Amino acid sequence: MSVFMDTSAFLAVLDADDAEHHRAKRTWEHLVTHDEVMTCSNYVLVETFALVQRRLGMEAIRAFQADVCPLLNVEWIDEATHRAGVAAVLAASRRRLSLVDCVSFEVMRHLGINRVFCFDPHFEEQGFEIVLVEEGNTTPAGPRVSGRGH
After folding, report:
1. What contacts 43, CB < 8 A, 6 or more positions away?
2. CATH architecture type of domain 2-130
């Protein structure tokens, strides 16, 4: 099965001080060991690179590029998808809903992906299932969101 990867998940996996780090690490390990198809957009990668570089430094960027990026199926955003994302973010008129999120929703719908690894409630609001492995479980739980948004 396919799962879309969000910046909030990447940050939580990489940052040992993140409040969601342990849950993110369990979920990441599950996705990798169960050969899930992990997809993200180049917009998610740009956002992740910028935030990881600023918060965690260049060594974390190098680790992300070397260890995480090769496992990802990257969907490159075209002009039509970008425009649809811009229209969605403008129509929503919500300060904390980002262009990257709106483009992610477009990509997920286009590819037929309904599951997402994230800690961002906007995905659940859009009807997507959030994939998180809870402590003591070996399979992802149903939709659960921590209330955080990146």
Report:
1. 77, 99, 100, 103, 104
2. 3-Layer(aba) Sandwich (3.40)
Pick from 112, 19, 5: nearest CA to 68: 5
Per-domain residue ranges of the chain = 2-130
CA 70 to chain centre: 16
Tally of helices (H runs) and strands (E runs) in the chain: 7, 5
Chain segment 10-29, per-residue pLDDT in tens? 999 999 999 999 999 999 99
- pTM > 0.85: yes
Give the three-state DSSP class for 12. helix
Which tens digits make up the pLDDT trace of 3-15?
A: 999 999 999 999 9
